[in-house]
Amino acid sequence: xxxxxxxxxxxxxxxxxxxxxxxxxxxxQATVRRIFSAASRLLADGARLADISTSAIAxxxxxxxxxxxxxxDDKQAIIDAIANQHMVEFDDYLQEALTSVSAQDASEYLxxxxxxxxxxxxxxxxxxxxVFGRDQVSASRRDVLSGSEVGxxxxxxxxxxxxxxxxxxxxxxxxxxxxxxxxxxxxxxYQQTDAGEKRRVIEELKTLLNRYLFxx
Length: 216
What we know:
Elements: H1 6-14, H2 26-44, H3 54-61, H4 65-69, H5 75-97, H6 106-123, H7 125-132, H8 139-145, H9 151-162, H10 169-191, H11 195-214
């Protein structure tokens, strides 16, 4: 399977195997946004996917269940679409925030990506629930979102190539390992009740990934 790109994610935001093709009409688009907002509120309140039903999402969105099924086959399709949408938005957010960061210093660049991700997570608790709840996103969608061509991993890959490293399957594997380790460390960081401890874990993550990715 070819690696996912940002354009693939944007396409997938519009349709996937469990999502009916999203409408072009303004009224119907507004309904889809209500569904996303309703599911996002439930996630932000700490609900797990197993505890969320299509009925609960429809009630929160002030829709009938039949109205929800016009656009989505099931609740998993809604969660996957929200995750996908966030990754597209985060990619834009990340690239804009990185414009003032040195493209030469590997440690600074990596640290900036991590700090920007923290800021994005802190401002969007529904995305945090998706990131830290590994059962929230379907396995197929998680594989796409953690690929080496999208999000932070994609930017890191381009950065490493700009440093003169040759793209290869080994580099892709290294980035996927870094993404998995980073996800586990982020989960641990956000489990800390003390803000200082959370920051210490994040700083340790920067050190760990910097040595793994850039130490010769």
